[in-house]
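Mods, move this if it's the wrong board.
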Amino acid sequence: MSRRSARLKDQLLRRKGISMKTLGKAASLFSLLIISALFCVAQQTPPPSQRPLAVPVSNTARLVIEGKVINVHDGDTVTLLDQNNKKTTIRLQGIDAPELKQAFGAAAQENLSRMVLGKQVTIYWTKVDKYRRTVGTIMLDGRDVNIEQVKAGVAWHFKKYEDEQPPEDRRTYAAAEQEARTAGLGLWSDAKSIAPGDWRQEAKAKRWGPPPPEGTIIGNVKSKGYHRPDCPGYRDMAEANRAFFKTVSEAESAGYKRAGNCPAEIQPVARKASVVARTNEPSAASGTQTGVSVQTATNNQEAIIGNKNSKVYHLPGCAGYTRVSEKNQVKFNTAEEAEQAGYKLAGNCTAKNSPRVVESQTSAPAPSTNASSSVVTLATPVTPAAPSSADQTMIIGNKNSKIYHLPGCAGYTKVSEQNQVKFPSVEEAEKAGFRIAKNCSASKNN
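Not the wrong board. Structure tokens:
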């Protein structure tokens, strides 16, 4: 028994030794894993000098980029190369320098290059603009480079975006521009200097050339879209891409469609005048005479609406009168007031289309009456002009229902402009997959 006990005890000790050895190896492996994980985290965490810094300014945070200026594009735009070899385009905040082709444009670029090209700088920025440029302030050795451009007279204080600047910067930049202006430095030495935005508009107008005849529809050869004179982008098209049409129908017949930023025309609806007849008291001089009072549904107080973007105005009742968005509306009491403000009458709107103007023209003459006749001549409401003969011969198809209408058939004038497809013949309409409307046939048309 003692020998067997000793043998069992020896086996237990050996097993225990193996278990302890296994536990020791597992503990060592676990410790190694923890050390490796901590090492990886340490490698991924950038040193404090490389972390984005946040500098509180006027309850906002301005991020920081540090790097070397490797290119100066003009007087207010540079390219920065940071320590990770990433290139960033920087638009200098708070200033607007002349374009390179503009007077003092080259001087502004040269002055900025002299200060920062090839040097390590710090950029404090707050946003990225629509051109994907980082908008910020260049700091070099604690000095604001942006304001130095203004002080040298080679940049304007960009008041359009001054609300994005801290209050203190707004004041100092405005004061720097005033000092340069008073001293006649740089661009302020030329009385004809104009801001870059105005210069670009003038340059665009020169490239565009003389305007076409009034009411001309302009199509884009590339996009196959057309613009009416009252549409945004009417004068922004490159000369090489323009195609001219006399009417919308002509443009659509040529395969052009209304541009996406051009609202559909709304046909003016004739306003009916209600006539109320009354019999006046007989008089000794003329016996019994018939008197007529005319009550129009037109509101004489309707304002003339101008569009801030297109600089055109619409008379009440004209196409486009109700299409101007509220934020772009400017209201005038008279057409003269609108034109004095620099607005012009919309190309698809004429005085005869407006009930307001018609009423003012026809309200002066009194109805002619006499004792022997009760016939009274009244001014009839103005109705929209009839379609041209060219339009009346076209077959009109409906994009949605894939049916077409012959001239004179019911529904011919009821297809909305945006759903219209015009064909010169029935054969062409049917080749395009359209079928004739059930309430329309060739016999009805005849």
